[in-house]
Structures
1.
Amino acid sequence: MRKIGPYVFEPLISELELEKIIRDCAQWLIEEVDENTLCLIVDKGGRPFGERLKALIEPEKGRWGSLRVKSYQGTESKGDVQFLSRDFPSPEGKSIILIEDILDTGLTAHFLGSYFMSQGAKSLKILSLLAKPEKHKYVLPEHKVGKNLNDTFVVGFGLDLNEKARDWKSVYSLKKIDMLNLVLFGPPGAGKGTQSAFLVEKYGLIHLSTGDLLRGEIKAETALGLEAKAIMDRGELVSDEIVIGMIGSKLDANPDAKGFIFDGFPRTQAQAEALDSLLEEKGESISMMLSLEVPEQELVHRLLLRGKDSGRADDQNEEVIRNRIAEYNKKTAVLKDFYGAQNKCKEVIGVGSIEEISNRLSEAIED
Ligand code: AMP
């Protein structure tokens, strides 16, 4: 099993099987190649396959070159291929063999076929390590395929996911996508709410803020809201039982989520332990805790500023603000050790422009 971010891959074609497939392709190539042949490796994906083939056939036979293209989807006109690089002699009168990693929709192969024929090539064939016949959408030139696959997302041996996995020695297929569960951590005013909006947008996560949930209860004048209001107005923490119950029902209500951002939760060791158990019941876990680091003076300044239009009583009184920060230091800050012990805690500087902080968070997540 190998992972790229939340993507989990399982082995599909071993090195040994790959070698057999490539030898079979090399045999086909040996029979095809003559003095008039131009073998063109389609970079970057076709590179490992092409290099291996080149080593297996007599190099003096035929000529080799390479190219890299950008193909345009949704246009049928001929020659709509933009070369990002090209390293080959004139194709005129040549029998061209394009060496590819995979024939998927067939878009690149289709357009390259049209392009080379319009440039006076004598013939054009494709040698592709892999193919997904179910997904072919374009008319393909004559082709030889090493191995046909079902419609599964594959990486390795030239095939990439955002430029990763090209150098893997064998081919893997996507097994599942893990949930990305983030604890966005930091004292009141650290920017957790602001940055949550960015993370929701970027990673498609569900934002769970216990503060927002409690304020929702207060607004709806529920019994729970009435109980919580006085405590929140003083800047103290409401009971673990209440917030754990709220988070538990939100997790149950979103079984298909790609992941969650926990904002303002957990705030105590008991909450952190409860969260681990709730996730464990679902076969999930916290991916990481991102701790926004902001000096206390800046926090007070930001909260008083926010209090001018947030309408939040607890943002308007400096004494309450200092009390919230004290509660954080007394009961919540220890959670850095809790997640640190699991090797999941990352500190991110929470001062600077919103965009700068967002970039730091993305880097920490994708690292
Ligand atoms: P926040 O919006 O996260 O700043 O939370 C506002 C207030 O809601 C806090 O000062 C607490 O009184 C209460 N609260 C929010 N989340 C929690 C939590 N996880 N545990 C206890 N109290 C919380």
2.
Amino acid sequence: MPMVDDAAAPHFIRLRELGEDRIEDVLALAGRLKRGTSRAELSGRSVGMLFFRGSLRTRTSLEVALYQLGGHTVNLTASSDFWELEARHGTVMDGAAPEHIRDAAGVLSSYVHALAIRPKPAGRSWEVDRRDEGIRAWAEYARVPVINMESALWHPLQALADLFTLRETFGPLAKKRIAITWTPSPTPSGPAVIHSTLLAALRSGMNVAVAHPRGYELDGGVMSEAEEIARERGGKLETGLSPEEAVKDADVVYARSWSSLEVYGNPTLAASRVARSAGWTVDEKLMALGNDARLMHPMPVRRNLEVSDEVLDGPRSLLMAQAENRLHTQKGLLSMLLRG
Ligand code: CP
């Protein structure tokens, strides 16, 4: 049944795994599909989508993407639609989970042509969660491509749409300045979106300025990779700036809440850090420091806490284009992964 054999299944856990040529192909196809100058056809193809935590955009845009291409998705939500799963190798399964990921992935691989997974990091230790073992176990056992719908470390589907939106808005990206700024939230996200989009921006030759309060440094391994890419591509990478320093002369401001990795797994300390971080809301005064700057945010966005209504509803906002482009870029990606 699956059209991709065991050895060849190309997984999409992080953007880099596609390779630069294929990223270009996917973006070009997405552009043609958006303009209506190309058609893609995936009739008879199915994708299983497994959600271990909630989603609005990813779930809807992937489902509609495959529907518009003539294919079909099966949506499964953990806790209501399938058994609790064991991920450990060689364990005696006498706990709560009656099924192993190995068996679930094997079975689903004989029904569908790709598996899209949104895992739920345990949230106790960043050192453990950053290994992305949840999604990597699916990739290890599945015989079809596994698509990451946002793990602890990466959100490649968002980065693909962000890259498309940046190019659509600015054309060539080399030397454009993107200010990535932390925003406050009582329910901060993980750093996955920022990690993926930061590397995509640097790979495009952009100058990247990251602003965050002390204690909100991004993952050390990702930042080492970011420095290497900046050196390779000739972009400038600045970190630990204030919002004003980062946004000064920026062409685009990318706002996003993310949790402190320093106190990861300690909700009390995390909440007190957020409470101490007043003054990080993105508003028109901050945006005015940029170079006619546009605003991006992957959503969901907390209005008047992360970003003011004035900016969100004004002409600087690219949020709706970004969200719409999830659909077009995922159509491009699915066409490439499932065409066989
Ligand atoms: N940006 C994003 O992935 O949105 P959802 O969490 O709603 O899917």
